């Protein structure tokens, strides 16, 4: 469940299990389960001594939601000698005998039962609420409906207690049974919770005696991507960055008319390695998937999420012209280093502020002009586009954006010396 548990498990494996010749069972078909198998192999445990038992999936899609990655992981498991048993549910230990030490585990399925020797058992079946946590919630008289019940502002039924994270669920009045904090970026949820908690320490605000009334029963919108990654069997480095939301099979997503388009380079285990980018209907990066046997700067690649493809050096047109054979090499080039700078998002906010601000009294901003065209509910024609570009240039907005860009590069020149600036030529 946490780093301490992992450290204890690793210590026991290194000092006791490795000296024996017993079998290890990994139970689950989650990303954690596959990473656990790779960790056991990396510690020197032979693949023949590792049994991966996959229970029937409780979700519509696999944990990777990508057939190519599914196939690559399966092939890596077979190559390493790991025995995989799919569709089994844990039934009991030691054939049902009540003994102090577990020596075997029995599983049931729709076909035949299975009994395996068990020297160590790692369970990654599905996340549930810990018994001690449930007792604490129940003893505190907090409403519990499978999970701790909260409203959109993190309130439980006790005004002095807040709740957040995967242990919580929204009240039924929102009619959003499928949605919970597990669908969103945990760090962003934590920031929103901290913002709510800061109000308790503001001396200028009256303390709440009850959760405030909500005019609209709507759950909050979180925009930061969900990120998952790890090292998979076959020593594959894996990263998946996606829009927060419900788990929908990839094939179903592609059938939607507003899906957009995906761009691929390489293949799992090939040259170049596998890199998939999904561009939505607005030409923004909505999904990134990386699978490679070489380490890569994952923190940099995460920064690409949400950017328009024009930010990425006209990626779509370059890809269509077959100028990008390998996305890994493309995004390691020096032109994109500004995108990875920690102040780049602030720079984008500043540019947006320039475009939404009116250039003078009684004058419409660039954003207002664009909204007038968009609100007509007809595709923008070439004449309208040309007119907007002329307004953008003549109003001084273009010059202001260029000046702000040069200021950004000059201020951060010690990090970004590869960009040209005035006075260099």
TrEMBL record:
The UniProt entry, under InterPro entries, shows: CFAP61 (IPR038884), CFAP61_dimer (IPR056299)
Q: Which residues form the CFAP61 dimerisation domain?
A: 220-339
Q: Which residues form a coiled coil?
A: none
Secretion signal, residue range per the UniProt entry: none
Q: What is this protein called?
A: CFAP61 dimerisation domain-containing protein
């Amino acid at each position: 469940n946490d780093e301490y548990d992992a450290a204890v498990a690793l210590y026991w494996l290194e000092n006791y299990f490795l000296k024996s010749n017993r079998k290890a069972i990994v139970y689950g078909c989650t990303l954690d389960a596959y990473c656990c198998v790779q960790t056991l192999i990396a510690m020197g445990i032979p693949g023949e001594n590792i049994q991966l038992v996959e229970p029937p999936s409780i979700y519509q899609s696999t944990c990777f939601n990508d057939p190519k990655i599914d196939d690559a992981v399966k092939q890596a498991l077979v190559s390493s000698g790991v025995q995989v048993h799919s569709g089994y549910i844990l039934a009991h230990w030691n054939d049902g005998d009540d003994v102090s030490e577990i020596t075997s585990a029995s599983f049931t399925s729709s076909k035949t039962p299975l009994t395996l020797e068990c020297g160590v058992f790692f369970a990654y079946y599905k996340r549930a609420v810990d018994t001690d946590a449930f007792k604490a919630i129940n003893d505190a008289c907090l409403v519990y409906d499978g999970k701790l019940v909260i409203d959109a502002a993190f309130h439980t039924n006790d005004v002095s207690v807040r709740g957040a994270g995967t242990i919580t669920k929204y009240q039924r009045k929102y009619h959003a049974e499928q949605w919970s904090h597990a669908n969103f970026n945990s760090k962003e949820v934590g920031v929103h919770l901290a913002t709510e908690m800061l109000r308790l320490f503001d001396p200028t605000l009256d303390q709440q005696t009850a959760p405030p009334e909500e005019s609209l029963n709507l759950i909050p919108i979180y925009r930061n991507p969900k990120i998952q990654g790890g090292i998979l069997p076959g020593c594959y480095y894996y990263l998946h960055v996606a829009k927060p939301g419900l788990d929908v099979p990839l094939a179903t997503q592609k059938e939607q008319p507003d899906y957009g388009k995906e761009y691929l380079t390489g293949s799992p285990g090939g040259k170049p390695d596998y890199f998939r980018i999904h561009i939505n209907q607005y030409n923004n990066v909505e999904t990134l998937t990386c699978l490679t046997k070489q380490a890569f700067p994952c923190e940099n690649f995460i920064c690409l999420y949400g950017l328009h493809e024009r930010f990425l050096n006209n990626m779509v047109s370059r890809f269509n012209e077959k100028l990008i054979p390998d996305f890994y090499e493309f995004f390691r080039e020096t032109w994109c280093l500004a995108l990875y700078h920690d102040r780049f998002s602030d720079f984008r906010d500043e540019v947006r502020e320039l475009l939404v601000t009116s250039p003078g009294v009684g004058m419409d901003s660039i954003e207002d002009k664009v909204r007038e065209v968009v609100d007509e509910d007809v595709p923008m024609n070439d004449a309208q586009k040309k007119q907007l570009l002329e307004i953008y240039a003549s109003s001084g907005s273009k010059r202001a954006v260029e000046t702000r860009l040069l200021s950004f590069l000059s201020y951060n020149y010690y990090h970004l010396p590869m960009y040209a600036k005035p006075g260099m030529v």
